[in-house]
């Protein structure tokens, strides 16, 4: 048998910030490297031109997080989890496309392991949740390797009106990576920073109003706020009751009221005709008053044109009625605004 192509391994893992999940999965499936190679610090042979201690996700965190403060803590079991994933792969027991994939979660996802779940606050630093986040459990069951917890705006930016974005007592002040001490926005700051700088293959955050998409934009990565019906909030620390609660989950009573998705597979729904007949409202007045970046506005207009080409009906100058809190309490339904990815 021919030896594995180690030049591929060197090129891929030598630039973790550009390693996509597809490329990582391809390398794992073809034996070019292992899950342990992606996690453990000492793995790569010394003949590689790039130092072996600079090639893994945990080493990457150790190298650069002192300047960015994106990660609150790493998982002491990560190496053992990766080793178990490799053993399962050798036996042909692949759990799915995330098998052996290293990821981080915002420190508002409850985990039943040796790590804290604190929302960045000293108040919860020594507590232990009674159950784990449904989303995290599903990723574990799919074979993914949990590397650690990411920093955030304490209590998802609801501690006070004047606290800095991306700051927590436990994690310190996090910074976006493209300018010295750059404001990362928030509140899922650490997840975006870690993904952008190659500290993980992907990361999870939660959002009420911009907490995923704004840090993602600042860090030049994709931030996805899931559609209602796709994820569960069970096992999350939530600072507000206005939360995207999606997917049927008996541990999250709000999901029982969510309408079932038209298709159980998100990927299969991403078709070229998926927007045919969909009406998309554009609140021009709000956009004009709140968005001043010409680049963002240009990208937004291009997106509208693309959606129109794909069959969507663009409704200009849409006006969205704001529901009062009193009105919400009169009905047994809460329009949810917080989602996890």
Can you walk through the features of this model?
The strands form four sheets. The chain has a four-stranded mixed beta sheet. A hairpin with a 3-residue loop joins strand 4 and strand 5 (172-173). The protein is built from 13 helices and ten strands. Helix 8 (189-196) runs parallel beside helix 9 (213-219). It has helices at 6-13, 21-29, 35-39, 57-68, 78-90, 134-141, 154-157, 189-196, 213-219, 266-269, 284-290, 294-309, 325-330; strands spanning 71-74, 102-106, 145-150, 167-168, 172-173, 202-204, 206-207, 279-282, 313-316, 339-340. The model is unreliable at 1-14, 43-54, 240-247 and 323-341 (pLDDT under 50). By secondary structure, it is an alpha/beta fold. The two termini are 41 Å apart.
